[in-house]
Amino acid sequence: MRKCFQQLLIPRRSLPMATQVSLNSSLPPDPPKCTPPSDRSSFMSLFPTLATSLSCDPTTTDLHPHLSAHISSLLHYTVPGGKMNRGLSVPATYQLLVPPSTTTTHELQLANTLGWTVELLQAFFLVADDIMDGSITRRGQPCWYKKQDIGLGAFNDSIILETCVYSIIRNYFRSEPYYLDLLENMLEVTKFTTYGQSLDTLSAHNFTQVKGQPNSLDSFDMSRYSAIVKYKTSYYSFYLPVSLAMNIAGIKDPELFKGAKTILLEMGHYFQVTDDFLDCFGDPEVTGKVGTDIQDGKCSWIVVKALEIASDEQKKILALHYGSQKTEDVEVVKELYNKLDLIEKYNAYETQFYADILEHIEKVCAGNAIPKEVFTTFLNRIYKRTS
Asked: What is the tens place of the pLDDT at every residue in 103-113?
């Protein structure tokens, strides 16, 4: 496995995220300069130039005195700062798909630039998600909408972040033969993610309408949970970065995309299960956010698994206390989770997932044009993570 991927690995857990460009130009601008091979430092070095060009849109120069500073602040506050795994995965995957002897500096720069579209899409989702969830912190700092001078105007800011995705694609890729593939890929995954977000939000809202009533948790089952995860998280966090890299690598075979999707959606499911686990049992100092799944009445893996093994009396307790903002109710739910030994249940799930996914990677990549390192690199980054 190439050395550059070692820089992307997340610490393992032990358990009991310039130059102006012209939109009117007939030719796309050169991508911001970076030094190959693609790694975190070269990837991050592109952001200031991209942020400057996005905050000073040449088609709206009259707005620059009024809006550029706000957009620049929005970009710098909400886009970098995370682990950047989604964005970094685009150039990293591209370098696995294309032989080094045929890769040019220009192509690596394009792959890095495309990676930032995934991070911008992520920022768009997170800013809106924090508003809907009523979250307090994100990445160890107040959520964007919680800033005193922002408020609910953050919702419109999230839409600005989405438009930045397509500004970059248009500016840097419209002369490329895979331009339409990039657009269709991004549009479809964005659509799927909004479906997943809708199902997640509706599930929580519908539950709160009947909280405490008999059978109020009946809709919280693994089928609904898996659908939420598939569409809200797995497509954009796992499938999108790899499929974008496949697009710019010139891969067209639908079967190769199908095989990649199968594995990556499985990984996405595990990733979200871990997210749910950390929301309840993780350390906020490490995760960078205070978990609110219990208070929000989320259809999370933790509560679904609890319902699968709880007695009728324990289900009544969950129905009465789950989804409440009261500290004492949250503590009752967590105490029940401990009684049901959900940490051990999660550990068992994680162990089985790891064995199964390695077997699936071997099968899909046997005689395949996609190297298995594309998938094992993802796996190394998410397995036993702490945040």
From this structure: 888 899 999 99
